[in-house]
Design goal:
By secondary structure, this protein is of the alpha/beta class. It contains 19 helices and 23 strands. Strands 3-2-1-4-5-7-6-8-9 form a nine-stranded mixed sheet, sandwiched between helices. A four-stranded antiparallel sheet has the order 11-21-17-19, covered by helices on one side.
């Protein structure tokens, strides 16, 4: 009986203008054997199964790191299930863009089959069938017919590829948008090959889980596939040569989303540790394994849509999932709570001044910056925003001669801004509108770049600069909310979703602040309100964390997860 077939309609050569240089950089990072064995175990490509009845695809086979263990397992399965290896020319599909890589792999497959007792003629015939020289992303693979897709796709930014080729990739792979990495397309094409129930297992950089360029891939996964396992391997020795790739093993299935088993592997993680983990990840045992080189946990739910995937240890992700299931987001129409950013002008040299001679007083707004709130309360530096806005509309310069003279003096500089070139008739506008009523409204201010959250209360005296984010609310006592945002619980949310700066510093941008989930203000008892208010006034993070933990109904075990999760990287 022959194995299931994968129809290969055509292999498109790369555009003729691009001839790969064998000595060039093609994003090749070769995987250690034990990592390959782990991925094959996790997707279910194991000799105990009848692998001759299945199809496995390796989209970027390099020098055979995956192909050779696959051949060994297929041969073992044939012996167990009474199949003849020579009949299984369609059971394996390996691709490589570089002819010398493909030829090297074919020779290695022939040698391996010879070691397994196959005649040289059979070995050569199978190697030719199993290994294709061609571009996996530009190949028409026909209808989905793969049971397994595994590998280590190349790490290459699209801007490093000739435009003719990158345009072809973008046309073939709609998920590849923005400054995407090539491996995004390998995920998309690999998933498209899977039959119902089929699995994809890749080791590659995990940046797509949290960066903008991964949005469409996350949408694709969230809408049509299920994440089964995620093993973060940033510190593990996963590759033959050291690389700074932030790798993770991701196992996806063509099936509805279910429970997810997550692992954070440390520097000592190795093949022995992976074999202890594999049965649990495959669902063969319910007891969560423990080890000094990894942390593991099971999450009952996962994200859908294109939202960022959180980062952190399994215990952090477990706590985060629980909090998100029990509480509503900070920005909430029910409480009238909104998160925004201060004004960007595009030319602070003109629009921000300490000496506003001649400008009408109504056009001057006291401006507060991140530097002004570094001490925990606003300490105004005396700078003003020169505002061309009133009630959300641009003012008529004829009505404000002082303002007109100020802008006229700097007109050439103002008109050079992109926003002015795009809207010549409104050449003196700032990039952002000035929000009516925000100056006078009490608000919490949060600087963008900090190692921990730094909420500061403005009672309604200043307008925020663009390096500050603001929070206003109809229902919250802002000092009570400030206590929650000062706590390690707020840092847990932001740290899990933000892209961290050098040294582990967080970005407290609006998109990440909105990720914070909070209790409803009416559900916080008076004693906890007092404790949060007091901690906020004293800038006492520890006291704020303990008071917030009571408001969130967290136990001591959850508290123990918080501090390590929010410590900046060394």
């Amino acid at each position: 009986m022959r194995g299931a077939q994968l129809t290969l309609t055509s292999v498109a050569p790369p555009p003729s203008a691009w001839v790969p240089d064998p000595r060039g950089e093609h994003g090749e990072v070769f995987t250690r054997r034990w990592v390959v064995e782990l991925i094959l175990d996790l997707v279910g490509y194991r000799p105990e199964a009848d692998l001759g009845a299945a199809v496995i695809v390796e989209p970027s086979c390099g020098c055979g790191a995956f192909l050779l263990p696959i051949v060994e397992r297929l041969a073992d399965s044939c012996r167990r299930h009474g199949r003849t290896l020579a009949d299984l020319g369609t059971a394996i599909r390996g691709f490589d863009l570089l002819p010398h890589n493909a030829e090297h792999t074919r020779k290695a497959v022939v040698a391996k089959l010879g070691d397994l007792g196959e005649p040289i003629s059979t070995a050569e015939h199978l190697a030719e069938q199993w290994v294709t020289t061609g571009d996996f992303l530009l190949t028409d693979h026909g209808s989905p017919a793969a049971d397994f897709v595994v590998g280590n796709p190349p790490y290459v930014r699209l801007e490093h590829i000739p435009s003719e080729v990158s345009d072809a990739y973008r046309a073939a792979c709609p998920t590849m948008r923005g400054r995407a990495d090539l491996f995004v397309g390998f995920f998309e094409k690999g998933l498209a090959l899977l039959r119902p129930g089929g699995r994809l297992g890749f080791i590659c950089a995990d940046r797509w889980m949290r960066n903008q360029y991964g949005t469409r891939l996350r949408e694709l996964v969230g809408e049509h596939y299920g994440l089964e396992a995620l093993i973060e391997m940033h510190d593990a020795d996963a590759f033959e040569t050291p690389v700074s790739a932030y790798p993770a093993i991701t196992v996806l299935r063509n099936a509805p989303q279910g429970r997810v088993r997550v692992v954070e592997a440390g520097a000592a993680f190795n093949g022995a540790a992976s074999q202890r983990l594999a049965p649990w990840i495959r669902g063969e045992t319910e007891e969560v394994p423990s080890g000094s080189s990894f942390e593991a946990a099971e999450l009952l739910r996962w994200r859908t849509g294109g939202d960022h995937w959180p980062a952190g240890s399994p215990l952090v992700l477990e706590l985060l999932a629980s909090l998100e299931a029990r509480f509503r987001p900070l920005e909430d129409p029910q409480t009238g709570t909104r998160v925004g950013i201060g004004v960007a002008t595009g030319c602070d040299e003109v629009y921000v001044t300490e000496a506003p001679q001649g400008i009408e007083e109504s056009r001057l707004l006291p401006l507060v910056t991140a530097r002004d709130v570094s001490g925990g309360s606003p300490d105004w530096s005396g700078r003003y925003l020169v505002s061309p806005w009133e009630n959300g509309q641009l003012v008529d310069l004829v009505e404000y001669p002082g303002l007109a003279q100020h802008f006229g003096t700097h007109e050439a500089r103002i008109r050079r801004r992109h926003v002015a070139r795009r809207r010549p008739s409104a050449w003196y506008r700032t990039i952002d509108r000035v929000t009516p009523g925000l100056l006078e409204r009490p608000k919490l201010l949060i600087p963008d770049i900090k190692s921990t959250a730094h909420p500061v209360l403005d009672a309604g005296r200043y307008y925020p600069h663009h390096n500050l984010y603001f929070i206003v609310s109809d229902a919250w006592d802002l000092e009570v909310l400030g206590g929650i945002l000062l706590s390690d619980i707020a840092n847990l949310f932001v740290g899990a979703y933000c892209v961290k700066m050098r040294g582990g510093t967080f970005r407290f941008q609006a998109q990440y602040i909105r990720k914070i989930h909070v209790p409803h203000p009416s559900d916080i008892c008076a004693d906890d309100e007092d404790a949060l208010r007091s901690a906020f006034r004293r800038r006492d993070i520890e006291a704020a964390t303990h008071a917030a933990a009571r408001a969130y109904q967290l136990d001591d075990a959850a508290l123990a997860v918080l501090a390590p999760a929010n410590a900046p990287a060394a």
